[in-house]
Amino acid sequence: MSPQRRAVSLVVNGQRHALEVVVHHTLLDVLRNDLDLTGTKECCAEGECGACTVWMDGVAVNSCLVLAVEADGRQITTIEGLSREGSLSPVQQAFLEEGAVQCGFCIPGMVMSAAYLLQNNPAPSEEEIREGLSGNLCRCAGYKRIIAAVQRAAEEGRR
Amino acid sequence: MTNVGASAGRVGGLDRVTGRQRYMADIRLEDALHVKLVTLPCARARIVGVDTSRAWQVPGVRAVFTAADLPDPMPRYGVHYDDRPVLAVGETKFHGEPVAAVAADTLDAAQKAAALVGVDYEELPAVLDVRTALDPAAPLVVDPELRPDDPLAHTNVRREFRYTWGDPDSAAADLVIENTYTFPMVTHFAIEPHAFAVAVDETGVTVWSAIQHPYILQRVMARVLGLPWSKVRVIAPDPGGAFGGKGYPKFEPLLAYMAMATGRPCRLVLTLEETFQAVRRNNAEVRIRTGFAADGSLRFQDIEADFLMGAYVDISARVISKSSHLAAGPYRTPHARILARAIHSHTPPSTAMRGFGTPQFTWALEQQMDEAARRLGIDRLEIRLRNLARKGEEVVPGDTPADGDWVESVQKAAAAIGWGEPLPEGRGRGLAVGIKSSATAGAAYSILRFLYDGSVFVLVGTSDMGQGARTILTQIVADELGVPPESVNVVMGDTAAAPFDYSTSASRSTVFMGGSVLRGCADLKDQVRRIGARLQGCEPDQIEIERGIVRFPGGEERSIVEVVQEGLGPVGGELIAVGTMRGEADPTHPIGGRPWFYEFNCTAVELEVDRKTGEVLIHKHVTVADVGKAINPLQVESQDEGAAVMGLGHTLMEHLVLDEHGRIVNLGALDYRIPTTKDVPLQLESIIVENGDGPGPYGAKGVGEGGLLCVAAAVASAVNEATGAVVRDLPLTPERIWRAMREVTPSGASPR
Ligand code: FES
Ligand code: FES
After folding, report:
1. Nearest Cβ partner for B272 among A43, A129, A135
2. pLDDT tens digits, residue range B279-327?
3. Among A150, B5, B274, B436, which is least packed by CB within 10 angstroms?
4. Where is the domain boundary, B278, B309, B342?
């Protein structure tokens, strides 16, 4: 008895994919395994670490908590879609410039959450940044440079 | 252009912000089978029988392995002790130890089949804490037959380490303080869970593992499989954080047997829960009796520590022997007696973790200093300054003397936290110091290939797990050879490509591999000098090379690449240089050699305690590291910030809790909390002291662990100042602080 599948259509980073997905697979599973978009990371698989953060219809979500079938017909943006034609988004640029990256495993999720935060609040206070990134765990850093990177990206955005 | 000493951007940073960096779980292997482990819901059980028939019925299942599918006797492996079975045999020793494993075409099939493996078992009483483990009536964790010729075989103690100097029994003291401190079971929680794969073919065995020490894995795999080392290739993608947890072999031997049986590569990506069960930090109980003179100077230390290392030794015996040797800390201690036990239990095995046993001792030692200060009426800063070893003075007789101006670090921390200035209402300040031994021996080889176009391949066996070794090595090569950093390619993580490196541990990479690469650069320059001499008809030693410019006796200057190209001629080729850095072991030394350097840290905090809830809010946290020379200051500072926050984790919130079956209750990110952006200090400052007094390139010492060593003690000290509360057990949860506050006697003295 092979697992039950269903047809879904996802638009990932602007590209449409018609897929037969296993019904209990998460959006994270499908991105990583079916589409080989491995920039999105898996850690806790229970919505607590933020490593798997992507945008669904422009809203940041933990892709480990979204079933692929629930994402049917949605627009998904992953870390691979954030930089276009080799040019980095302001958040990515700021993460590099502030030295916010260590091992990097949390970074794709962190960047997606930070960029989402800035989209909705282009001039966040430090408090708001701490709040906005509190669902993204990093074990390498003291978060200070990550917060500074978001501040820098916000400043760049206001220029 | 100078790269060394500048905060060059991280090599590999771009791939990390774009999601292109491939970690172990991101690597696809054609035709690979997915493996799922089968475990029991308790720590210790007798395995009565395993029924695999239903698991085999799941479509896509290619192997269902139990102990019966492995050689008899069960192969065992480990870094220093071959004590860990490939699969549990007869009895499980901890919650999470696999009794069977399934390999299938898909992960779904493997998971489904694993759930269908029927294990008939009988739960047995388990040893879960120090007291039970030391009870003569306790069950033995390790079968005595596996410990032949070991006088401790009939106990749960694997090793006892004793160090004594002076005459602690007759040392006179005006004040003697005796307390017991506990340090909890915590886990590394790298954001990348453990992941491995093994493929077998004619060329031998290829192992992929997010591992810090690929050569140790190569050696262990070769030994357990009976293969020459040359037939074991370890590919180690950059780990997504490690902190000591990714040092030693885990399930790679199991995967090798499964790959041999199925003829297909086998891969295993652990869940975070399984990662928690794989390894952890040693929890410890430290009993300490300290004697002081009335002026606060230390008279003696009498320290007895019990480390609960779990079911298998892994690297714990080394963690304990090494950290206990330096248990008296960075002070002048005229008399000391230290006894540390490495104890088995039915809990997940402990391994290395940032600080390597030192945080457990520092937690105890620094609180003793505080209590002495309180009771003798001496300032807490002052009592430390009075006792700190000055540069060149011994901390442990016969060992490496103090190798830095530690007083300078302490004064910098005190100044940054505003020590002695008036405190806002409800706040306290605390300050503590910590010291950790670095590597005592090791060998790091590097190959530098200077290519015809002037670019350079650097082949090294170090792992870049976030500490930034690639960046540091690139900076060194760029400076030494005068080439742009963009044309340096540091190749790591493949034992078939890079030469031997002992390990990426004990903050050694900059000192050992940096030193090796520096020597490789010197070798390359010698080769260029010889070529230049041949071309110009002079002697090699008449030629000077500085930052890529070759200066000939007549004053003519040419770039290295020009000289190399002319020397190699139209056929081309390359120059190959080897860097070798070795520190030999010293069998007469109690820990196998003198540490190459110390990591010294001083941490100071200012915090506020909510008197109603016991909750701590850290307003400012200062961490000061004596690093010799910061080759990349940004990387040094940010690693120390990370260490500080990891330290705050075990200080304030982290603690693996076991139930009566030996299961971890708070298994996973939901219940095991680590610091988030909302838990970190409002202000976090990382300060570097550079006096060029380290043994590494340009006077560098290793960094990255120090920032964690004394965080707990500094916070406890501040909590005490703010509230009078004394807590000797970690973590300092609101409840513990709240209870301790209620016990404070009116005089403010601590309860005994
Ligand atoms: S993997 Fe999705 S939140 Fe942790
Ligand atoms: S950079 Fe390693 S987990 Fe964040």
Report:
1. A43
2. 999 999 999 999 999 999 999 999 999 999 999 999 999 999 999 999 9
3. B5
4. B278
Structure token pair of residue B49: 């029988």
Are B98 and B213 in a shared domain?
yes
Contacts of B471 in chain A (CB under 8 A): none
Backbone region of residue B594 per phi and psi (left: phi > 0; alpha: psi in -120 to 50; beta: other values)? beta
Q: Tell if the CB–CB gap between B26 and A38 is shorter than 8 Å.
A: yes
- Reply yes or no on whether the pLDDT at B748 is more than 50: no
Q: What whole-number distance in Å separates Cα of residue B387 and Cα of residue A8? A: 69
According to DSSP, the residues that pair with B232 across neighbouring strands are B205
Atom of ligand 2 nearest to the CA of A103: 2
Find tokens 């989209």 and name the residue: A119
With an 8 Å Cβ cutoff, is A50 touching chain B? no
The answer to whether residue B577 sits within a structural domain is: yes
Contacts of B707 (CB under 8 A, 6+ apart): B601, B603, B623, B625, B639, B640, B641, B642, B643, B644, B647, B686
Whether residues B634 and B675 share a domain: the answer is: yes
Report the alpha-carbon distance of residue B362 to residue B366 in Å, rounded: 6
Co-location of B480 and B417 in the same domain: no
In a domain, B179, yes or no: no
Is residue A13 less than 8 Å (CB to CB) from chain B?
Answer: no
Which residue lies with its CA nearest to atom 3 of ligand 1?
A47
Domain of B216, CATH number, reads 3.90.1170.50
Alpha-helical (H) ranges within A36-143 are 79-82, 90-97, 107-120, 126-132
Is A50's C-beta closer than 6 angstroms to any atom of ligand 1?
A: yes
Q: What does pTM read for this prediction?
A: 0.97
A75-77 and B76-77 as β-strands: parallel, antiparallel, unpaired?
unpaired
Which residue's CA is the closest to the ligand 2 atom numbered 4? Answer: A138
For residues B11 and B60, the answer to whether their CB atoms sit within 8 Å is no
Q: How many domains does chain B have?
A: 3
Note whether residue B650 is domain-resident. Answer: yes
Runs of H (alpha helix) within B468-508: 469-481
pLDDT surpasses 70 at B752: no
pLDDT band with cut points at 50, 70 and 90 for residue B745:
low
Q: Which domains does chain A have, with CATH numbers?
A: 5-80 (3.10.20.30), 90-158 (1.10.150.120)
Q: What count of CB pairs under 8 Å joins A to B?
A: 168
pLDDT (tens digit per residue) in B208-222: 999 999 999 999 999
Beta strands across the sheet bearing B298-310: B157-165, B335-344, B298-310, B283-292, B175-183
B280 touches B186 (CB < 8 A): yes
State whether A48 and B238 contact (CB < 8 Å). Answer: no
Pick from B530, B555, B583: which residue ends a domain? B583
Same domain, B106 and B194: yes
pLDDT at B507: 82
CB–CB of A103 and B15 under 8 A? no
Does the residue B295 lie in any domain? Answer: no
- Whether residues B453 and B428 share a domain: the answer is no
| B188 interaction partners in chain A (CB closer than 8 Å) | 139
Q: Are residues B446 and B431 in the same domain?
A: no
Q: Does residue B242 share a domain with residue B212? A: yes
**Per-residue pLDDT tens digits of chain A, which is 159 residues long:** 567 999 999 999 999 999 999 999 999 999 999 999 999 999 999 999 999 999 999 999 999 999 999 999 999 999 999 987 779 999 999 999 999 999 999 999 999 999 999 999 999 999 999 999 999 999 999 999 999 999 999 999 877
Rg value, chain B, Cα = 27
Domain that holds residue B39: 16-124+188-278
Q: What is the CATH number of the domain that holds B565?
A: 3.30.365.10
Residues B86 and B67 in one domain: yes
Q: How far apart are CA A36 and CA A55, in angstroms?
A: 17
